[in-house]
Amino acid sequence: MSLRPKTKRLLWVCAAVFVIVLALGAFFAWTKFFREEKEVFANEEEHFKYGSLGAEGDRGIPYYLWMILQRKACCVFCSKQHTILASIRT
């Protein structure tokens, strides 16, 4: 079975467009999710306040820090919710 030249050309164009879209999608996914860039801050204070721990890429946030953050966040948000609910009820 032989295809007409117009059909062959259409198939080649569709295949080329598919490959280009696939390559662009792969490049976007790599730049958005997998590429690591060094963060630059104005001074040491900004780096201290907003900087990374530096361990997230390999091992993630340390377990003990994760547990402390959860407990502190629960204390802060739970007390705020109770205060808001108390002010609404009165």
How is the secondary structure organized here?
Elements lengths: L4 H30 L9 H7 L12 H27 L1
Gyration radius (Cα, Å) is 27 Å
Tell me, rounded to a whole number, the average pLDDT.
Answer: 78
Structural class: mainly alpha
| Beta-strand content estimate | under 5%
Helix content: over 70%
Q: What is the CA–CA distance across the termini? A: 83 Å
Q: What is the count of distinct domains?
A: 2
What gross morphology would you assign? elongated
Total number of helical segments?
3
Number of strands: 0
Order of H and E elements: HHH
> What are the low-pLDDT stretches, counting only 5+ consecutive residues below 50?
none
The major pleated sheet works out as: none
Task: Give a structural overview.
The chain has 90 residues and is mainly α. The protein folds into two domains: 1-36; 56-90. The chain has helices spanning 5-34, 44-50, 63-89. The protein starts with a helix and ends with a helix. The mean pLDDT is 78.
Features:
mainly alpha; single chain; 3 helices; 0% strand; 90 residues
Could you give a short description of this structure?
The protein has helices spanning 5-34, 44-50, 63-89. By secondary structure, the chain is mainly α.
